[in-house]
Amino acid sequence: MIDIGLSKMALIGAVALIVIGPEKLPRVARTVGTLLGKAQRYVADVKSEVNRSMELDELKKMKETVEGAARDVEQTIHTSASDFEKDWHNATGDALDSSSGSYASSYESASGVVPAYAHPRKNWRLKRAAVPQWYKARAGVRSKAQSGAARVARFRPQKFR
Asked: Which parts of the chain are coiled coil (predicted)?
């Protein structure tokens, strides 16, 4: 940056005192100080943004190399698994199912029918009723709905009933 020593600062201050005057000099000095501070903050923000963008580019390159390596590993695993599956079926004697293009399992070839998948549907009533009534009473869970008037009548003091 600009190399300003103590002698140059004194000369600038003396000229400013003569040109601006002693009444306006403090206000001008404050304004110049705030402008210099804003300029320094702006330069620091630009530097940090450039550093962030450089780091982001480096991270993108690193991400691409890691993704490429992961794809290579996945591809080698798939090829070795398919080779193993072919060797296994050749060794066990399972026949290739010509209609579906996959190996037929021993269960399918024995019975001829594969059972369909049935989703285990859960009954929400059973799940709700799994909490015991004594626990609900102790925890203060309301088991019956009451209207506002019934609730007021229930909790009204004894002398007004």
From this structure: none
Give residue-wise pLDDT tens across range 23-38.
888 898 899 899 999 9
Does any domain span residue 155? no
This prediction has a pTM of 0.37
Backbone angles phi, psi at 119, to 5 degrees: -70, 130
143 domain-assigned: no
Tell me if 18 is assigned to some domain: yes
* Number of independent structural domains in the chain: 1
Range of the domain at 56: 6-93
115 domain residue, yes or no: no
